[in-house]
Amino acid sequence: MIEFKQYYKNQFQQDIIRFISAIPERNRHTFGDKSTYTIQYQALTLDFHYLDFLDIKVKAYFATALFFTVLVDQICYSYYKPYYLEFRNLTLYPKFVGNSPSTDQTNFHPSDIFAAINYSRDTNKKNQTQKVEFWDIFNEAVEPMKNEIVDFFVRNLSEINGNEFWEKCKKEFPYTLKTEMNNF
Q1: What is the pLDDT at residue 149?
Q2: Residue 13 is assigned to a structural domain of this protein
Q3: How many helices (H) and strands (E) does the chain have?
Q4: Residue 159 lies in a domain
Q5: Any idea of the CA torsion for 125, 127, 128, 132, to the nearest 10 degrees?
Q6: pLDDT tens track for 71-105
Q7: Interhelix angle for 162-170 vs 135-156, to 10°?
Q8: Residue 43 has pLDDT above 50, yes or no
Q9: What is the pTM of this model?
Q10: Inside any domain, residue 35
């Protein structure tokens, strides 16, 4: 059985390229800049078949990896603007946006990725499709993603303290971590 760390390092990049390639060109760059990829909420839903190449377990890995990718981009933009252009040039991370002309240039919170994966307008489709569960995968991903993010800043943008950056990321987590469960 694959672990999140192996998925992120060995398969995620190929899966995201395959996913984005399946999306019509006009919906891939809603910011009007061909170098900025956007992922509209609807592209992740059951109403479209862009993720049908992934089985249910891999969808959980994919969505979790995408969550962290989008989150890191948004944290860098929000808190480290003087370094964002350099970060952007190094990563080319996609933006997660709305569907309509009024929201397709608006960044959605990355936690909405988890809702989108299980969403369908068609009640029958929603009821007949096995729901993707994320909590365990998310917990599994936290430590490797922390290490990846801290290491990225040490190697590429040492002006940003990776540990401080990670603390800002943690404030945006959509789930209570297993390690924090005893605090309730």
Answers
A1: 97
A2: no
A3: 9, 2
A4: yes
A5: 100
A6: 999 999 999 999 999 999 999 999 998 787 666 66
A7: 150
A8: yes
A9: 0.91
A10: no
Boundaries of domain holding 147: 66-184
Kindly state the average pLDDT of the residues 46-61: 94
Rounded distance, CA 137 to CA 12, Å?
A: 14
Alpha helices in 80-156 (DSSP H): 81-91, 112-117, 123-128, 135-156
- Amino acid at site 2: I
Name residue, tokens 């350099």: 86
Structure tokens, 123: 């009640």
Between CA 72 and CA 149 the distance in angstroms is 8
User: In the predicted model, is pLDDT for residue 181 greater than 60?
Assistant: no
Return the pLDDT at 33. 74
Q: Domain tally for the chain?
A: 1
Residue 28 resides in a domain: no
Question: pLDDT at position 102, please?
Answer: 61
Cβ 95 vs Cβ 70: under 8 Å: yes
Q: In DSSP terms, which residues pair with 96 in a beta bridge?
A: 39
Q: Which residue has the tokens 């061909």?
A: 34
Decide which of 126 and 157 is more confident. 157
- Cα distance between residue 183 and residue 178, in whole Å: 10
